[in-house]
Write a structure and sequence with these properties.
This is Glycerophosphodiester phosphodiesterase. The protein has one domain: TIM Barrel (Alpha-Beta Barrel), CATH 3.20.20. Helices cover 35% and strands 18% of the residues. It has 9 helices and 9 strands.
C-alpha cells in the first residue's frame, strides 16, 4: 500500500495519546509506517512528549508545561484520564520515544510552540535526533513558521514540514520559501489538483486527522502517495488491507471456477 498509515499521537484511539503505551501499541501494528507526536520543553530544558501547552486535559497535574521541571512532570499520571488500565502511565521524554522507535518506524515530530514560548526547543530536539543518528527517520513539523526557519538554520539538511488547516492560493510558494518538503494538512482542504501539484514539486503530503474508513478510501482515490494520519490505525487496516484481501479472495474464486 502506498497510502502510508500514520498513527496520530500513537494508537491514541485506544491508549492515552503521546504515551509509551500508545506508541508501543502502534508499533505492534505491522501496517503502521509512521507515528506522529508532539514535543515541548520542560522548565529545565528536557524535550517532553505532550500535546497541550497545559497539563489539565491529559494528566492529573495543573499549569503550563514550561513552568514545570522534568522531575515534577515525571511524577504525573498521564494515563488514567483515558482508562483505568493506563493508571500511572507517564509523560515520556523525546529520548525515550526515539529509543523505542529507532529503526522501526519513521516519526513526524511536531514542534509545539508559538512565538518565543520555547527558546531552544529546536536545538534540544535536534540534539536528541543527531545523538542517535536518526535524521533520516524523522520529519520536524510545526504550525509555527519561525520554528521551521530556526530548525533549518540549525541543520539545513533536516527534513521539515508545515502544518496547516487552510488552503492559501500560494501554498506551494510558501513551502518553497520555508524550505519544506513535507505538508501536514487538514484533510477537508485536499483535492486531486492540489495533490498533483504538490507531489509534482517533490512535496510529501499527509492528511489529518481521518478516523472514518469511507473518508480514508475517498482520499486515497485523490493520489496514490497521500499519507493518512489517524487515531485509529485499525480503521486504516479495515479501509485498505481488509478490502484488498477481500478483492484477492474474490479473484481467486473467479480463477478457481473457470
Amino acid at each position: 500500500m502506498k497510502h502510508l498509515c500514520v498513527a496520530h499521537r500513537g494508537f491514541s484511539g485506544i491508549a492515552p495519546e503521546n504515551t509509551l503505551a500508545a506508541f508501543r501499541l502502534a508499533l505492534e501494528q505491522s501496517f503502521v509506517h509512521w507515528i506522529e507526536l508532539d514535543v515541548q520543553v520542560s522548565k529545565d530544558g528536557v524535550p517532553v512528549v505532550i500535546h497541550d501547552f497545559t497539563l489539565e486535559r491529559t494528566t492529573n497535574g495543573t499549569g503550563r508545561i514550561k513552568d514545570s521541571d522534568w522531575k515534577e512532570l515525571q511524577q504525573l499520571d498521564a494515563g488514567s484520564w483515558k482508562n483505568a488500565e493506563c493508571l500511572g502511565e507517564k509523560i515520556p521524554t523525546l529520548a525515550q520515544v526515539l529509543d523505542l522507535c529507532h529503526g522501526r518506524v519513521s516519526l513526524n515530530i511536531e514542534l509545539k510552540t508559538t512565538g518565543d514560548m520555547y527558546p531552544g526547543l529546536e536545538k534540544a530536539v535536534l540534539r536528541e535526533i543527531m545523538m542517535r543518528e536518526m535524521q533520516n527517520e524523522v520529519v520536524l513539523t510545526s504550525f509555527d513558521r519561525s520554528a521551521l526557519r530556526r530548525t533549518k538554520e540549525l541543520n539545513p539538511e533536516i527534513r521539515t514540514g508545515l502544518i496547516i488547516d487552510a488552503r492559501p492560493d500560494d501554498l506551494a510558494k510558501q513551502l518553497e520559501k520555508l524550505q519544506c518538503s513535507f505538508l501536514s494538512i487538514g484533510y477537508p482542504h485536499l483535492d486531486r489538483y492540489l495533490l498533483r501539484d504538490l507531489t509534482g514539486r517533490g512535496i510529501t503530503v499527509m492528511a489529518w486527522t481521518v478516523d472514518d474508513c469511507r473518508i480514508m478510501r475517498r482520499l486515497s482515490a485523490l493520489h496514490p502517495d497521500l499519507m493518512i494520519c489517524t487515531n485509529w490505525p485499525d480503521r486504516w487496516e479495515q479501509a485498505f488491507l481488509l478490502s484488498k484481501r477481500r478483492m484477492w479472495h474474490y479473484i481467486r474464486k473467479l480463477i478457481r471456477f473457470r
